[in-house]
Amino acid sequence: MFDIRCGGCSRLLARVSGCYTIQIKCPRCRTLNHQKAESLPKAPPSALLGGHNGDQENRSRAERIQL
């Protein structure tokens, strides 16, 4: 979880986890705070293998290089 704090007065505004985009006005100082996630979620294993659903895992390294 990440703490979202006001850029004007450092008051804790929210706690978030995962991907997020948040825009929140601080009730104390009325500063409009806008935060975006800094990184994308991790890709599923099939995406790392080019979408072949793991069929390349059963081949030897030499066979995979020749493709």
Automatic annotation (TrEMBL):
Pfam families documented for this protein: Zn_ribbon_Com (PF10122)
Domain of life the protein comes from: Bacteria
Basic and acidic residues: bias regions: 54-67
Alphabetical list of InterPro entries matching this protein: Translation_reg_Com
Chain intervals for the UniProt region annotation (Disordered): 37-67
Protein name (record): Mu-like prophage protein Com
Organism classification: Bacteria, Pseudomonadati, Pseudomonadota, Gammaproteobacteria, Pseudomonadales
